[in-house]
Amino acid sequence: QVQLVESGGGLVQAGGSLRLSCAASTSIFSFNVMGWYRQAPGKQRDLVARITRAGSTLYADSVKGRFTISRDFAKNTVYLQMNSLKPEDTDVYYCEGTLTTHDYWGQGTQVTVSS
């Protein structure tokens, strides 16, 4: 059973930084794509950033220039470096990994940005 476990969320002041980690129970090279999504209560889950096996990245317009997705194959971990955080970045952040036929999700980690 593939598991994704997020960590690194918390409370930060506007303008601050956080780094989220997503540790996979299997080699992250197995995933076609891995990404970070975020969701507020009652709203849809939106893509924040993703990275393909080949290393191509994609970012939501709202986070371009502030967030960076990266990975460490040796640690089977994907990261989301979040800088210049804004109150509107407050959400639950989820890690997602797409294997050939299935999407896997982590349990989510809360990020709260105070003004």
Sketch the major β-sheet.
7 strands, mixed
Please state the structural category. mainly beta
Write down the overall geometry: globular
Q: Helix proportion of residues, in percent?
A: under 10%
Number of helices: 0
Strand and helix layout:
Elements: E1 4-7, E2 10-13, E3 18-24, E4 33-39, E5 46-52, E6 57-59, E7 67-72, E8 77-82, E9 91-98, E10 103-105, E11 109-114
Protein model, in words:
With 115 residues, this protein is mainly β. It is built from no helices and eleven strands. Strands 2, 4, 5, 6, 9, 10 and 11 form a seven-stranded mixed β-sheet that branches. Strands 1-3-8-7 form a four-stranded antiparallel β-sheet, with no helix packed on it. Strand 4 and strand 5 (46-52) form a beta hairpin. It is globular and about 40 Å long.
Give me a quick take on this structure.
The chain has 115 residues and is mainly beta. It has strands at residues 4-7, 10-13, 18-24, 33-39, 46-52, 57-59, 67-72, 77-82, 91-98, 103-105, 109-114. The strands form 2 sheets. Strands 2, 4, 5, 6, 9, 10 and 11 form a 7-stranded mixed sheet that branches. A 4-stranded antiparallel sheet has the order 1-3-8-7, with no helix packed on it.
